Amino acid sequence: MASWNRIARRIRVPLGFAFAVLFLWLARPTPAFLLLGLVLVVPGLVLRGYASGYVKKNRELTTTGPYAYTRNPLYLGSMTIAFGFAVAARSAWIAAILVVLFVAIYVPVIRSEEDYLRSVFPEFDAYAATVSRLLPRMVAAAGSGATKGVFSAALYRKHREYQALLGALGMYAALILKLLLRK
Fold first, then answer.
1. Which of 29, 57, 77, 84 is close enough to 41 for a disulfide, judged by CB 3.0 to 4.6 Å?
2. What is the model's pLDDT at position 130?
């Protein structure tokens, strides 16, 4: 399993680009479904952007901001965006493939990252006991310091999270182009 964790970490980004080609081929967008997809895509982008402004990778265990509600707001945002695109594409095949990909790729990656955090930050186990892995809590975890953290636009830029927004705009442009070319 450890070897698959390493492989999953390495292939997730290239696999995403390959999936984008399949996605565009299978997509059957309509104006209504493009708009409906935004109901998931926009909050997913906001969550990813918000989370990236809190995380200080490898320097401290981030438990504030969205990390007081879920241990993996970046992945939750990515999944929300992806399923929003499945809606926009109006394809059950895309949704089914996404479920398989997320289970095969993100579950091992999350577990591997948690093993790393556990080895580096002794307080991780206490944090993990109060904050769920993926599905968010309705209120911030007690003692999480949710109100102590402050969003940092510098961290947002450092993590280049704006690339998710640019990617989403590009995919929507491709879906709109496909819609227009089909008419």
1. 84
2. 93
Tens digits of residue pLDDT in 67-102:
999 999 999 999 999 999 999 999 999 999 999 999
**Residue 27 region, left (φ>0) first, then alpha (ψ -120 to 50), else beta?**
beta
Q: Any idea where the domains of the chain sit in the sequence?
A: 2-182
Distance CA 105, CA 87 (A): 21
Q: Does residue 33 have a pLDDT over 90?
A: yes
CA atoms within 13 A on the CB side of 166: 4
What CATH number does the domain located at 2-182 have?
1.20.120
CB contact at 8 A, 39 and 84: yes
How far, rounded to the nearest angstrom, does the alpha carbon of residue 73 sit from its chain's CA centroid?
A: 7
Six-digit token string for 70: 């879920």
Largest CA distance in the chain: 58
The helices-and-strands tally (H runs, E runs) of the chain is 8, 0
Q: Which of 116, 108, 117, 134 is nearest to 11 (CA)?
A: 108
Cα–Cα dist 146/141, whole Å: 8
Mean pLDDT of the chain: 90
CB atoms within 10 A of CB 113: 15
